[in-house]
């Protein structure tokens, strides 16, 4: 089966197979039990309300699946920010990103040649599948904004262009969160975290703690 089947019946089957407890325990790992439903949600094939209703109908109580509900809520929250702020989400929302030395995207990221094995493999797969694990999206954004010091907007456009689940509210506001333009502090990825969640054992990369 392809990663993202186009048959509506197959989408509904995937909806019925969600395991919110396994999701909570493993979602941060690159091979974790994520739902792979994001393209269908972003394109309106199914809704976050429908996803939640399906899980609750199978007997899971809200207090047992809090993390799963939170992630659905984040998606809706970003949409509400977009509705409220409009085109303001195309600009640094809370404060200016700092420091910024360029408005481009490193060719090392574009070509999957960062030297960070997990990220380079994920970028190669990204061009083929149109999908990036959420943690890898954060790693790439941190690499682009907080190490290469690129302003978040052009790199966010690059990712948005290639994502099958492209959602400008989630994408733009998440990039701003990483870059510190939509949060009180930046998200700084490190190699230890990449190794843990991507099952690698690498040292001496651009993300290695000093």
UniProtKB/TrEMBL annotation:
InterPro entries in alphabetical order: Crypto/Photolyase_FAD-like_sf, Cryptochr/Photolyase_FAD-bd, Cryptochrome/DNA_photolyase_1
Keyword flag Flavoprotein: yes
Matching Gene3D superfamilies: 1.25.40.80, DNA Cyclobutane Dipyrimidine Photolyase, subunit A, domain 3
Keyword terms: FAD, Flavoprotein
Coiled-coil positions: none
PANTHER family listed in its UniProt record: CRYPTOCHROME, SI:CH1073-390K14.1
The protein's name: Cryptochrome/DNA photolyase FAD-binding domain-containing protein
